[in-house]
Amino acid sequence: MISMQARNVVAEKIKILRQDHGPNLVLVGPVQLPVQLEGREVTFQWYTWLNLNTIPPLEGEILDVLSEIDFASSQQSSVLVYGDFANNDQALVRFHSICHTGDIFGSKRCDCGYQMQRSLNMIAQNGCGALFYIANHEGRGIGLFSKSLAYLLQEQGYDTVEANNELGYDDDQRSYDEAIRVLRSMRRKPVSLITNNPKKLQSLREQGLLTDQHVSIWGAPTKHNKRYLRTKIAKSGHLYETSTRSVEQEGWSGR
Question: How much is the pTM?
Fold first, then answer.
């Protein structure tokens, strides 16, 4: 069981986000997290959250039963916050779907790793913002194991949408409900969303996200992800805007 001394340290950093209909969330933070961004160190405030419905029912408060919960077998989502996020008028927000291959291994089959690093830089340069790292979004919501199967299909000629469909999944199975609830607990003012996906922007607005505009984020095209990027434009409706010059300089056009 957690000691009284440790409890006093962490208890004030725990907040319960309650909801009449739906699971309660436990939000923990902030933790000061220094991040290396292109030759400079930037300190973000790091929060993580937990859906209480994802753990078995246990007697007692969560601090009393930590060691009884198998957190390691499942991913938890988190958010990096920079600047005066609650009060600044101009805040950039990125809802970033976890990508084991791109974010961790630096895979060139997608542009996820680039988008995560670029988003953090944009937020730091703006002086205020947050990057939500959403754990159950791997493969646009199909999970890491199924994503590996989709990659095998892609190696045989299927595009990213066709591969997911062949495995019985929709093109995009992601939900942003939890992330939006956490965002609302941190900020009431509108935000500018870092995304190329107007469908994502619209779905977030329909769920009550206050967003006044979006900021496009393109780059890092390679011979391995050309078709992937084209498919996101042609089939997933992604906008092809500010990247036109840089992408064409790489010898590729998504049109």
Answer: 0.80
64: which 2 tokens? 């009393």
Nearest to 62 by CA among 119, 105, 15: 15
pLDDT digits (tens, 9 = 90+) for 180-216: 999 999 999 999 999 887 777 887 888 888 887 888 8
Q: Map residue 196 onto helix, strand or coil.
A: coil
Write down the pLDDT at residue 240: 55
E strand or H helix that includes residue 228: helix 226-234
DSSP label at residue 69: S
| Alpha carbon distance 134, 25 (integer Å) | 14
What pLDDT is attached to residue 29? 92
DSSP E strands, the chain: 14-17, 25-37, 40-51, 77-82, 92-97, 129-134, 191-194, 211-215
Question: Which residues are designated catalytic?
Answer: 172, 174
- Which string of DSSP letters, residue by residue, matches 14-49? EEEE--SSS--EEEEEEEEEEEEETTEEEEEEEEEE
Strands 92-97 and 191-194: parallel
Residue written as token pair 């992604």:
238
Q: What does 84-116 look like in DSSP terms, one character per residue?
A: STTT-S--EEEEEEP-IIIIIT--SSSSHHHHH
Domain segments of the chain: what residues?
4-249
Domain 4-249: CATH superfamily is GTP cyclohydrolase II (3.40.50.10990)
